[in-house]
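Take one protein record:
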Amino acid sequence: MKLDTTLDGPLRQAGDEAAHAEQDGYDGIWTTEIAHEPFFPLLLAADRTETISVGTGIAVAFARNPMTTAYAAWDLQAQSGGRFLLGLGSQIKPHVERRFSMPWGQPAARMKEYVSALQAIWASWQHGSRLDFSGDFYTHTLMTPFFDPGPLESGAPAVLIAAVGDGMTRVAGEVADGMLVHGFTTERYLREVTLPLLEEGLRSRKRDRETFSVTYPALVATGHTEEQLAVAVAGTRKQIAFYGSTPAYRATLDLHGWGDLQPELHALSKQDRWDEMGGLIDDDVLHAFAIVAAPDEVATIMHKRFDGVVDRIRLYQPYDSPAEVAQQVLATFHEQAGVR
């Protein structure tokens, strides 16, 4: 199991941040599409690193068409020497329609076609095959030499799909190279719901789980002092509450018998009472969704929960935390991995 981190500083610092992450021993670095564009920082990161994987976790697929994404991913794959991981997510209907002004509908089927279109475009560049992709949502039938960037020694990037619901999880197994598990996923939901659905998708295309990568963003609340831990727990409760307010994510709460929490959180979000929402996340919910422990204990819990279940785990800390806290988690993680 590999341990990754997130690039979350200003764009101008992305190169330095990536270089430090590689030096510290992280296996991968990811960007998010929240308040900033996800591809730009990785260009700087790829230029300043040599071995670490660089990926989008996630880029919003439906905010772009497959051709636009194909070019960005191809350039990053070239710049990184084959270390780029294209993580795609659908986002939800209000954001796609009202924030990005793009069409929404049948997200699982649309994502399946989106990835297939990417693969067709990349095949035309890598192998010189004629581009002739026609689907229900996307059509790409024109690629002249002038617009063809040409093949890559490393080949096309790996594609990972972020999934929560049943349909999207199966699609990840059918057409992608990996899956990005959503941060609002408990160990129980991962084992009992997500992985069986993923296996269904893989079996439907006679694909092998050994060639497929599962990445999990582990919510972690940790700190060296009581004050640091209190800040971490408060920030983590708030993040869980934010995710829990989304109707599309209720299934995870339902599995644990906490389904009634979702409409309460949703109602508060509609009133912009964001700061109050974390108060609804009790200790049972907190510990189900997050690892809450001292820095030197986090790795032990990570390995216990996820060894043999996921291939990559990303340290997810939705609060300000001293750098030395994460460094201790990382050191302990590698120490324990070395004796397993």
Summary: Residues 88 and 196 are 21 Å apart (CA to CA). The radius of gyration is 20 Å.
